[in-house]
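Async update (no meeting this week)

Hi team, since we skipped the sync, here's where things stand on the single-chain job. The sequence we agreed to prioritize is pasted below, unchanged from the tracker. I ran it this morning and attached the output directly underneath so nobody has to dig for it. Comments welcome in thread, and please keep replies under the output.
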Amino acid sequence: MSAGPDPQIDVTQIEQARRQINRLAEEIAQLSDMDLSPPEYYGEFLQRLLQAIAAPAGAVWVRTSQGNLQLQYQVNMHQVGLDKSEHARPMHAELLRHAASKGSPLLVAPNSSSGQVEGTKIPPGNPTDYVILLAPILYDKQVAGLVEIWQDANRGQDAQRGFLQFAMRMAGLAASFTRAHQLRQMVGLQQVWEKLEAFAKKIHASLNPLEVSYLVANEGRRLVEADRISVAVRQGSKPQVLAISGADVVEKRSNLVQLMRALFEAVMNWGEKLVHSGATRDEALPPAVHKALDAYLAESNSQLLVVLPLEDEREKKKEKKKFRSGLMMECFETSSPPEFAVERLQGVGQHAASALYNASEYRRIPMRFVWLPLAKLQDGLGGKAKAIWTLSLAAFTVLVLAMIFVPYPLKMEAHGQEQTKLRANVYAPEEGTVTSIPVTLKPGVRVYKGQELFRLYSPTLAKTIQTLQGDIERASATIRVLGGKKSAENIEVNTKITEAVTELNAKQAQLESIKQKTNSLDAAGEFRVLSPLNGIILSNEFRETLVNRTVKPNEPLMKIGFTNPERPDVADWEILLKIPQKHIGQVMDAFRTLKTDELDIDFIPKNDPTSTYRGKLKRNKVSPEATPNRDDNNEPDPVVLAWVRISGDGIPESSRIPASVLQSGIDVTARVRCGTRAMGYSLFYGVWEFIYEKILFFF
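Output:
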């Protein structure tokens, strides 16, 4: 005869189980009143809940601010079979969304759904072999999360419903925790907002980029509760590390700062936030960022590192450029999830972005030392309009006083040409036709005294020479004929011989004189024009204008200047200056007032228009009379000629014109220094003289 189960043992086991469940429920209630973070609370909560109802797996889902369900904590979730088919996870996700929208507890049988899979539409359902118990966490009649439990399907229906009721009661405790946690968050947020407000006031109180950077680094570290915060601002093309929290001075040459700057540059060029928690490595990082991060981590022992590029709203309206500033947060020991630190850093970064933008823009303002006093003066004068009128009147007064009392150099403008000091015109000794010019003769070519320049032919000269030659032949013949009859008694013959000899000598002397004067050649009528001195040819286009042309003795054929082209000497040159008649009075007055015999001349040659050279104008080198001159409009404009020396004493070596620039006939623009006068007169002497001549003269 066998014995049945002992009822006393069953009652004892049930009582023990009930006490354990109550103990676990009390622990969950105590946890709900504690100040824990949601991950810590739901981890302890779910483990005790699963232990209380002897469930193999469970999960807690929390609704985010965007309305999505996010897994907060799970136990053995990978063992329930959510990956056994391609539709399992989508079906389970639809079930969670359905439960969250309904807001009431659900008990879902294993391998069940509310419909069939049709194309891409997945119905909500339970794809696992377990019974799913879903208890909503309600806060202000809104679903703040879901408690999901996978229970053994062999349990009875009454037990399953009891488990669901217990899960609902525990979900109520979770709702109490959520309410208390959010209340604490609100209080904490208020404190954070107060700190952020104080932080914003401090960093916006200065427009010095360095000072703002240090405030952001030191004050931001307290808000974020990090170990170190660094600030970098782009100055030019590359960012520079301006501040590191806790450091009075940033040693830019240190290896750590250089690696930090390189990491800042890589991330700011990339334009995305970099988060490195020390446990995982994002392989999708750009190569430049990856390389800079590895190099920096080899020097720093940061467990949590975040590099946040900062962009002000005003920069977004401009053309897309590289980020101007950035923050780096480092934690050497981490106790809280990195998401909270990153979120706090982003809050600090929003305020720091505008402060650093303002400081950088202010730093870019040119000549701040001028504009700031003007701004203060504008405020002191009572407004923009009054400030403009006052400043305009003050500027006009200062300008008038400067025109009257400030001395200023008086310079008279003139024009002239470069030329050699010693020069000569070449004339034909006799009227004739130019038959040839040596091919070697060109402008600027060196010639020597006595060198043939032109060959001419004159029919008059030819006739004269032929006549003289005939007279000489007749006289010579007479002497020969009468020479045989010469005797002491024949006086008549002797007389004729003497007359013939006299005529012969006279004709020969006359012929020799004509040949010497005209440089005649053997051919009758041909003669040459020779160079009167050593020098270079100054004339242009003489060949085209003279060949086969009849010229007269008073017509210049060519001009030759005395200089050595092989070894040019500035001393051989001078400037022929044409001073306008209206300016000569100021020039002559300058000789008297300055009590000097020479005035300085500044001139610019047209063949070297980017250089200014110096010359000297002597008093006795100014012509005593004016000569007519034609201007660009072919109007007569009387000028006074003057000769300016460009070498010798009184001219600095650095201001002397080089010999290579000198070329006869080159135009120069010159200014004669006439001492100093009042600025108004020096700048507007022409206007003053016009007013005096046309208006004041008649009063």
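Quick observations from my side:
Residues 423-561 form one domain.
The first strand starts at residue 57 and ends at 63.
Reply here if anything looks off.
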